[in-house]
Specification:
This protein is α/β, with parallel strands linked by helices. The chain is globular. It starts with a strand and ends in an 8-residue tail after the last helix. It binds 5-O-phosphono-D-xylulose (5SP) and fe (ii) ion. Keywords: Carbohydrate metabolism, Cobalt, Isomerase, Manganese, Metal-binding, Zinc. Catalyzes the reversible epimerization of D-ribulose 5-phosphate to D-xylulose 5-phosphate.
Length: 223
């Protein structure tokens, strides 16, 4: 049974103690570091940009999984790659020419990811299934941490898994928003490969143990 990929989201960290929190993630079983960039246009919130990304890069030993919640992300792909992103995920809803943007991400030397908001059907990816390395299913409406997972996400992940299998794609499926121990096994069972978790990790009294529990949460399948 392959354990899931766990990507703690820095959005829920204590920014006054960023180095401490980054080093905690380094010591944990987390696989990636999820970095949410918000522009106040695509989503109704502003988070942070290049200086914070560079600061995390200086201290982390984990790949940086950058989630761009910004309009026209093609303007900034090269710079995010240069500043240390390993994976760059853009929103389907923010890209007029999604295929071109995904190609741009790969050409910049990064894994190319596409995120889908709740209302966007997975079928929009069917014709370009060889153009991305990961798909991020938003399990909340993006813009803020600390929200509750929307249950519609479960059949959506299942449908995406079928679509990718049918297309012969080995792209990873991620889930982002409201992920905690109460729902992770269900989403993994539906077909998710990676789990982004902010509040349930950084809001815990023992974040390293919380990451361990998420990492161990795949339910054994009954024989
Ligand atoms: O992209 C986003 C929010 O838009 C996420 O990555 C959040 O940072 C997840 O936080 P929690 O829901 O786990 O608190
Ligand atoms: Fe995110």
């Amino acid at each position: 049974m392959t354990p899931p990929i766990i990507a703690p989201s820095i959005l829920a960290a204590d920014f006054a103690n960023l180095q401490r929190d980054v080093e905690m993630v380094n010591r944990s079983e987390a696989d990636w570091f999820h970095v949410d960039v918000m522009d106040g246009m695509f989503v109704p919130n502003i988070s942070f940009g290049f200086p914070v990304l560079e600061a995390i890069r200086r201290h982390t030993t984990k790949p940086l999984d950058v989630h761009l919640m910004i309009v026209q992300p093609e303007r900034y792909i090269a710079e995010f790659a240069e500043k240390g992103a390993d994976h760059i995920t853009v929103h389907y809803e923010a890209c007029t020419h999604l295929h071109r943007v995904l190609t741009q991400i790969r050409q910049a030397g990064c894994q190319a990811g596409v995120a889908l908001n709740m209302q966007t059907p997975v079928d929009v990816l069917a014709d370009i299934a060889d153009a991305f390395d990961q798909v991020l299913i938003m399990t909340i409406n993006p813009g803020f941490g600390g929200q509750k997972l929307l249950p519609l996400s479960v059949p959506k992940v299942r449908k995406l898994r079928q679509l990718l299998q049918g297309a012969g794609s080995s792209a990873l499926i991620g889930v982002d928003g409201g992920m905690d121990l109460s729902n992770t096994a269900t989403l993994l069972d539906a077909g998710a490969d990676y789990v982004v978790a902010g509040t349930s990790v950084f809001g815990s009294d023992d974040p390293i143990a919380a990451i361990h529990r998420l990492k161990s949460s795949r339910q054994p399948t009954m024989a």
